[in-house]
Write a structure and sequence with these properties.
With about 250 residues, the protein is an alpha/beta fold. About 25% of the residues lie in helices and about 25% in strands. The chain is built from eight helices and 13 strands. A nine-stranded mixed beta sheet has the order 4-1-5-6-13-12-11-8-9, sandwiched between helices.
Length: about 250
């Protein structure tokens, strides 16, 4: 399935970025639902020579994700403030599990599963990494502080800086350029991987507590999820690596 693509890389690869669904106020609109994403994602794609397009959660595309991916050369499952519905992995909500959006969950899970089948280069960021893990059958810790005993992965209203240890020879290492084996990252999350999904491998961990920080599918041209926010760091090579991977991508026709 190539969705109309010929297999020839575009001059400017089209990169779909999933939108967060948030309640916002602006102008005369008060407390309205909006599909938004940080411009940092689009700027990172533009710097890498790609064409960013926003993907808004909707039921028809969740039911037929192949059409949603048809015009894309790569996919970013973005982060966001809302947590994934714990019912997806058989749990009741933790008191700290907030702002669940089942429509967004269903949409993004469908996109990842279709991208897996199609061989479409895909990067999951923070919440998006958790989506990738669930799409492969994994589970989550609903509130990491209960597990690791600290809040160093998240500060309210800002990003935290820490280091991750990246597995040598992994896609995570190649995509970040982490030649030293470690990468300085920016994060803001309170959930994380508990059980790694079948077909995925954990290829980066936080140096401070060994929390899983990256998962990847070695059988896929580029299926990578990271728990940090590369779009917030202009030095990061990750999104550029995703865009570059489209030059060598072989999607199912």
């Amino acid at each position: 399935m190539n969705g109309g693509r010929t297999g020839r890389p575009a001059d400017r690869p089209t990169v779909g970025i999933t939108a967060a669904v948030e309640t916002i106020s602006y102008g005369p609109w008060r407390d309205v639902q909006a599909a938004i994403t940080s411009l940092a994602y689009t700027e990172a794609v533009l710097r890498a020579g790609g064409r960013p397009v926003l993907l808004v959660p909707n039921r028809p595309d969740a039911e037929n994700p192949e059409e949603a991916l048809a015009s894309l050369d790569a996919l970013i499952i973005s982060g966001g403030a809302g947590d994934l519905d714990p019912a997806l992995y058989g749990e009741e909500p933790h008191p700290e599990t907030k702002s669940v959006n089942p429509e967004r969950d269903a949409y993004e899970l469908a996109l990842v599963r279709a991208a897996r089948e199609a061989g479409l280069p895909t990067l999951g960021v923070c919440r998006g990494m958790q989506v990738v893990n669930l799409a492969y059958g994994g589970t989550l810790h609903q509130h990491l502080p209960d597990v690791v005993g600290h809040e160093k992965h998240r500060k309210r209203g800002t990003f935290t800086d820490h280091e991750v240890s990246v597995s040598e020879g992994s896609l995570a290492a190649r995509a970040t350029g982490a030649d030293s084996g470690t990468e300085a990252v920016k994060s803001c999350h309170h959930q994380g991987v508990r059980e790694v999904g079948e077909g995925l491998e954990a290829t980066a961990r936080a140096t401070l507590d060994s929390v899983v920080e990256a998962v990847e599918d070695a059988s896929h041209p580029f299926m990578l999820g990271v728990l940090w926010h590369p779009e917030e760091d202009e030095r990061s090579r990750l999104i550029g690596s995703l865009v570059k991977s489209t030059q060598n991508s072989t999607r199912e026709v």
